[in-house]
Design the sequence.
């Protein structure tokens, strides 16, 4: 019995080798057991890891396609903060995830196609947090150019 993939728009594998943004080395594909040895629920998940930089990224479910860019500890913390600020907007049910990402793209001055926290650097993650806090305070933030 084959498993049906939820995200049909995600390819089964990356288009090119996954490279580390920090050292430009090719990342190795590893299991979740290597990244999160204390999380048996993640053992079967695929990740890419750059050992020298301690940078890694998880893959979309049932694929070997990375969900974003490799992240070191500092970037992982920044992405976590960005998701903590942003995700409640669409998880609360008031807007769809797509609508929330369109709002975020407009607020950051990027295209919706390029608006993915998994691909952001630390500066963009900080901008996500600021935009979300401004929205939560009721301040209208005009899209930046």
Sequence:
């Amino acid at each position: 019995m084959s498993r049906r993939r939820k995200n049909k728009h995600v390819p089964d594998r990356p288009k090119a080798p996954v490279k580390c943004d920090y050292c430009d080395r090719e990342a190795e594909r590893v299991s979740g057991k290597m990244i999160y040895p204390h999380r048996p629920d993640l053992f079967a998940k695929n990740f890419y890891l750059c050992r020298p930089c301690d940078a890694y990224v998880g893959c979309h479910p049932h694929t070997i396609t990375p969900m974003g860019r490799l992240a070191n500890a500092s970037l992982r913390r920044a992405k976590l903060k960005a998701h903590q600020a942003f995700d409640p907007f669409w998880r609360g049910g008031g807007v769809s995830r797509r609508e929330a990402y369109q709002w975020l793209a407009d607020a950051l001055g990027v295209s919706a196609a390029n608006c993915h926290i998994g691909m952001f650097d630390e500066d963009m993650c900080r901008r996500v947090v600021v935009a979300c806090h401004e929205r939560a305070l009721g301040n209208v933030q005009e899209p930046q150019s």
Residues 7 and 53 are 30 Å apart (CA to CA). Helices lie at 32-35, 73-91, 97-108, 122-136. Residues 1-5, 141-145 have pLDDT under 50 and may be disordered. The longest strand covers residues 46-50.
